Automatic annotation (TrEMBL):
UniProt xrefs under Gene3D superfamilies: PAS domain (3.30.450.20)
Superkingdom, taxonomy of origin: Bacteria
Organism, scientific name: Syntrophobacter fumaroxidans (strain DSM 10017 / MPOB)
The protein's name in its UniProt record: Single Cache domain-containing protein
Keywords for the protein's UniProt record, in alphabetical order: Cell membrane, Membrane, Transmembrane, Transmembrane helix
Single Cache domain: residues covered: 1-82
Membrane topology: Multi-pass membrane protein
Lineage: Bacteria, Pseudomonadati, Thermodesulfobacteriota, Syntrophobacteria, Syntrophobacterales
Length: 148
């Protein structure tokens, strides 16, 4: 499903994790918060949360920095930040899907986020998919893997 987009999101997060391991927490969060930094590219960007759901860095929604978003719900009233943190705490990495508005158009779209835990933080990167593209990717996955 959305193989190229998933790979792009995963690559950007892994680069942020490697940068954090090399340069340290403070430098990594500063770089993630920089909308002209290396973790914003080709329509993708990374952001960081702590394990309680507080936003540590975001390059575009800077007003969220320092805000507890654990109860933030998607368009279906599902607490997607809580889901991100549950996966981060249990597996350490993974993907989460939810419905969200695209900032440029305010259109409700499916968003897929790749997340990876590093120390007491979670680095994330997501992408938007139209419902049609999402369904096509499900059918391709079904054809490839058979029924799930």
């Amino acid at each position: 499903m959305n193989t190229r987009e998933r790979a792009e999101a995963r690559d950007l997060v892994r680069k942020a994790v490697a940068f954090c391991e090399d340069a340290g927490r403070g430098a990594a969060l500063a770089e993630i918060a920089d909308r002209n930094g290396q973790f914003v590219r080709n329509g993708y960007y990374s952001y960081a949360l702590d394990l309680t759901g507080t936003v540590l860095a975001h390059p575009f929604a800077t007003e969220l920095t320092g805000r507890d978003c654990i109860k933030l719900e998607d368009s279906n009233e599902k607490p997607f930040i809580r889901r991100i943190l549950d996966i981060a705490k249990s597996k350490g990495y993974g993907f989460v899907d939810y419905l969200w508005h695209r900032p440029s158009s305010r259109e409700e779209l499916r968003k897929t986020v790749y997340l990876e835990r590093v120390e007491d933080m979670v680095f994330c990167c997501g992408f938007y998919t139209t419902e049609q593209d999402y369904l096509v990717s499900l059918f391709k996955c079904y054809d490839y893997a058979g029924p799930m």
